[in-house]
Amino acid sequence: MxxxxxxxxxxxxxxxxxGMGVVYEAEDINLGxxxxxxxxxxxxxxxxxxxxxxxxxARAASGLNHPNICTIHGIEQFESDHFIVxxxxxxxxxxxxxxxxxxxxxxxxTYGLQIVDALESAHSKGIVHRDLKPAxxxxxxxxxxxxxxxxxxxxxxxxxxxxxxxTAVRVDELTTAGSTVGTxxxxxxxxxxxxxxxxxxxLFSFGTVLYQMATGVLPFQGDTSAVVFDAILNREPPAVxxxxxxxxxxxxxxxxxxxxxxxxxxxxxxxxxxxxxxxLKRDLDSGGQxxxxxxxxxxxxxxxRREHSIAVLYFENLSGVKxxxxxxxxxxxxxxxxxxxxxxxxxxxxxxxxxYRDKPVTAGQVGKEMGASYVLSGSLRRAGARLRxxxxxxxxxxxxxxxxxxxxxxxxxxxxxxxxxxQKIAAALRITLSPQEQQAxxxxxxxxxxxxxxxxxxxxYARRVGxxxxxxxxxxxxxxxxxxxxxxxxxxGLANVCAQYYYHFERQQKWIDRAIEATQKASARGNDxxxxxxxxxxxxxxxxxxxxxxxxxRKALSRNPDVDGGYYLLGRSLFSAGKYQEVVDIMxxxxxxxGxxxxxxxxxxxxxxxxxxxxxxxxxxxxEIEVYETHLKKVPEDARARVLLAGDxxxxxxxxxxxxxxxMAMVLxxxxxxxxxxxxxVFCAMNNGSDALIAIKKAWESGYxxxxxxxxxxxxALLRGNAEFERLYPPAT
Length: 733
Fold this sequence. Notes:
Layout: E1 5-6, E2 9-18, E3 21-28, E4 33-39, H1 42-45, H2 48-62, E5 72-78, E6 81-87, E7 91-93, H3 94-98, H4 105-124, E8 127-128, E9 137-140, E10 145-147, E11 154-155, H5 189-192, H6 199-215, H7 225-234, H8 240-243, H9 249-258, H10 270-286, E12 308-312, E13 316-317, H11 325-340, E14 345-347, H12 350-354, H13 363-370, E15 374-383, E16 386-395, E17 400-410, H14 414-428, H15 435-442, H16 449-462, H17 467-483, H18 488-504, H19 509-522, H20 530-542, H21 546-559, H22 566-576, H23 580-585, H24 587-592, H25 601-610, H26 614-634, H27 639-651, H28 655-668, H29 673-685, H30 689-701, H31 707-712, H32 723-728
Helix pairs in contact: 4-6, 4-10, 6-9, 9-10, 11-14, 16-17, 16-18, 17-18, 18-19, 18-20, 19-20, 20-21, 21-22, 22-25, 25-26, 26-27, 27-28, 27-29, 28-29, 29-30
C-alpha cells in the first residue's frame, strides 16, 4: 500500500498491524491533514461477520465526540478495499506502556479518569464497548488516553447493523473461533457466561485494566482460556496493596468494587466509579489522611491547586429564531456562573467575552487577546421541548480540543447539562472539586423549567429599565414564583423591579412594600445569594439611603462581581451620594463586569461630567457609543438604549443622528418617563433649552420625580436656574 493514493488519501507509512487490519499513516490531499487509515485485510473482506464488525467500529465511534475517544472521520471503500479514516495518534498503546511495569499512582488516576469519562460518554449514548483492554487504549504524546476499537460494541438502536451474537468469530491473541466475544483476560463474568451485557460489563473490564496499571499483572491469569474463565467466575485476585504495599487502601477498594462478580454489587455507572477515582485523586493531591496507606505513611504528595483560566464564549444560537437568544445568553451566563464556583478556575467575566459574541474567532485568538488558558465554545438549538447543546473545551495555546460533548435532552434537563459541563471541564483540567464545590454545582435555582424560562425572559426585560419593560419583567417574575414559590432568584428579581419601578416611575408605597415582601420570600429559607443581597440594596436605594445601598451592593459584588446590574446600582448609589470620584475610580472594574447591562455606563458618564473631566468624558463617549450600537444590533426595539445613544451623538455634535435615535425612542415608548427624561438631556446637548424643558416636564408628569439625580445630572445643566425646572425638581432641604 505504501506510496499508493486511495481516493484522496496518499499513504505514506505503515504504523500498526493487528488481527482486524493494518493501519497506515496517510495525507488527506483535499484537506491537507494527516490521518490514520485502518484497512480490513482482503482475506477478511469476504467474511460477512468480520466486515460487519469492521463497520460497527466506525459507526459506533463516529457517533461519539469526546477527547478520550479516537475520532473517526469516516468509513470508505475503494474497489475491494474497506478502510476506516481515523484521527492520527502519536504515542504508544497502554499495552506497550505496561510492558515496562506498573504505572505510578498519579499516572494511573490521570489515565483512569480520562478513560472512565470516555466510557460515561459512550454509555450515555447507548454504546457498550465490550472489548476494553490496554491494547485498545492509546496514550498520546500529550499524555492523553484514547479508547480505540469499538468493533465489538453493543449499540442500542443502531440502524442497519444487527447485534453480534455471544459466539461471534474473533481473531485475537487469546481467543479462537467459537469463543465468547472479548479478549478472555478482560471479560466480565456475564460475558464469560454468554449472558446479556450492559454498561457494567465495561466497568468490570476497566477494573481489570486498573488492576494491571496498578500492579503490572493481570488479576485473572491462566495458561488456557478455560483456566482464565474459571478465575474470572470463581476466584478473587490478590489485593493490589498486597502486590504493591505503597498503593493507597482506597484504590484497593475501588478496584475491588469494579471487579465484583455480581454486577448488582459492582459500580452501577461510569459516573459512580469516576467519582470515587476523583475523590481519591483529590485526597492524594491534598495529602489528606484518607490517602494514607496501611503502614500509616502518606501515599500522596502535597500539591497546591493549579489555577487555570477559562473564557466562556457565548454559545451560537442555531435555531435561527431571534426569540431564543435570551435562552442562549441565559444558559451561557449560567454556565459561566457555575464555573466561577470552582476555586481552582479563574473565569473571565461575561462582559469581557461579550465582544466575541456571534463573531468567527478561534480559541487561540481569544486566548491571546484575553490571556485565557482555555476557551469554552458551543452552540444550542431548541426544537419544541427538546434542547441540543454542543460544548467544546479548547486549549487556547494549541487550539487542541481537550473535551467536547453533545447533549440532546429535554428542556427540563438544562440544569443537569450546565452542571455536567462544569464537572467535565473540571475533570478535563484535572481540578479536583471539594465537597462544597460539588454541592454548589449540583444546586438548582428551580425544579421547574417553565419558571426558569420566565425568569430568563424577565431578566432580559428588566435590563431595559423602561416603564413597560419593567412591567413585563414584573409579570414574568410573578408568574415564575407562582409556579415555584421557592424560586429565590425569581423573588429577588421581582423585588429588584418593584424597587426600580418605585424609584423611576411611581413613588407609591405599595411598590416598596411589594419589594420588601419579595426579598423576605427570597431569603425565607436562609438564602443569602448575591442576587438576594442586590435586591435588598435596590430597596434601600429606592428609599433614598444611598450610602447604605452602596455598602449593601458591595457585599454582593464581593461574592459575585457578575451579579446582574450590581455595578450599575453601585454607580447610581455613589453618584446620588455625590461621590463622583469613587464612581470614576471603579469605572474599569464596573465595565469589565457589566455584561449585557448597558445601564452600568450611565453613572460613569454622569460622574465624569459632574467632575468637569471633559477630555476623559470625550474619550469615554466613544466607548459608550460602541456599547449602545452593539446592543441595538441585537435588540433594535430597546428605546432606552436608543435615547442614551442619541444623547452621546448630540454631545459629539452629531445632531442628525441624535434626532433620528431620539425620535425612534419616542415612537417606541411615547409615554415613558425615562425616555422623556433622556430626551431632555439630548435637547440640552443640542443647546435647545425650550424643548428640553418641555421634555423634562412631561417626564415629571409621567412619574419621574428623582430630584437628587436630576439636579446633579450634568447633562441637564442648561436647565438649572429655570423657574419651572426649579419648581419641579427643588433642591433638598
